Amino acid sequence: MQYEPIKRTLGKIFSGPLFMRKLFYFILDIVLLRTWHVKRALKSVSRYIPYNARILDAGSGLGQYSWRMCRMNREWIITGVDIDKEQVNDCNNFFIKSGFSKRVDFIAADLVKYSEPDSFNLILSVDVMEHIKDDERVFSNFFRSLQNNGFLIISTPSDLGGSDVHSEDEKSFVAEHVRNGYSVKEITEKLSSTGFRNIETRYTYGKPGNISWNLTMKYPIKLLNISYLFFFILPVYYAICLPVSLIFNIFDLCLTHKSGTGLLITARKI
C-alpha cells in the first residue's frame, strides 16, 4: 500500500486556514495511538531536560509532534528536519502564521547526513527509522547531535507484526518501509554500539492497539488506495469506529505488553 501519497493529500486538504491545520493535528492526536505513547514518553523525559531545551524533531513530516512540543513548554526551541522539501516549506509557513517561528524552525535535510554536534537536549523520531536503510549512520548522527545527558525517543514498528507483516512471505503494509520492524535485541545493540546508555524498550500496539490500528489506519488506507472517493465516506466511518478505537487505545496505553507491533525506545547520551 502507498502511504506517502495519502499523507500528502491529507496535508493539502487540511492546509490553508490556520484552524484547518490545527484541527488536523487535533485529529491525529486522537486517532493515532502512537501519539498517545509518544506524549507519555515526552512528559516523562521533560522532567530531566532544561526548561529552555533544544529539541530535534527528526523526520518531522507534517509537523504534528513539533506542534505538540512547542505547546508543552513555551521555552523549548525546536528544529524539525525532514527530507521532503515541500512538507518543510508547508510547516514553516504554518508555524510562521501561528506565531511560533521564533522558536520552531524546519529545514530540509537527509538524516543520514544531518549532524549538529552537541546541540540538542532531546531528539524525537517517530515512525522514521523503518524508512531509512542506513539506520546505524543515523543513530551515530543522533548521538553526536545530543548534548551530554541528552535523551533520544524513538517510535518504530517491531518485528512482531510491525508493518502488518506476520511471516517471511508477507510484504510490508506500507510500501515505503525498507524494514518491517526491529527486534528489541537489534535496536538495543545498534544504539548501544553507537554509545547510547540507559536504553529502555517498551512494546506498543499490543492486542488492544492492534485492533485500534486496523480500525483507524489499515482499513481506511486500503479503501483510499482503491479510490480517493472514499475520502467522502471517512467522516461517517470514523464517527462509528472512533469511539470503539479510543477504548482500545486507553487499554493499550495503560497495559504492559509482552509483545506488540510497535516499539517505543528511550535512550540517553551519558
The CATH topology annotation reads as Rossmann fold
Strand order of the largest sheet: 3-2-1-4-5-7-6
CATH architecture assignment: 3-Layer(aba) Sandwich
Question: Which sequence of SSEs, written as H and E, runs from N to C?
Answer: HHHEHEHEEHEHEHHE
Q: Per DSSP, what share of the residues sits in E-state strands of 2 or more residues?
A: 15-25%
Task: Describe the sheet with the most strands.
Answer: 7 strands, mixed
Number of strands: 7
Structural class: alpha/beta
Proportion in helices: 40-55%
Query: How many H/I helical runs?
Result: 9
What is the name of the CATH superfamily?
Answer: Vaccinia Virus protein VP39
Uncertain stretches of 5 or more adjacent residues:
none
Number of domains: 1
Mean pLDDT: 90
The global form is globular
Ends distance: 40 Å
Output the CATH class name.
Answer: Alpha Beta
C-alpha Rg (nearest Å): 18 Å
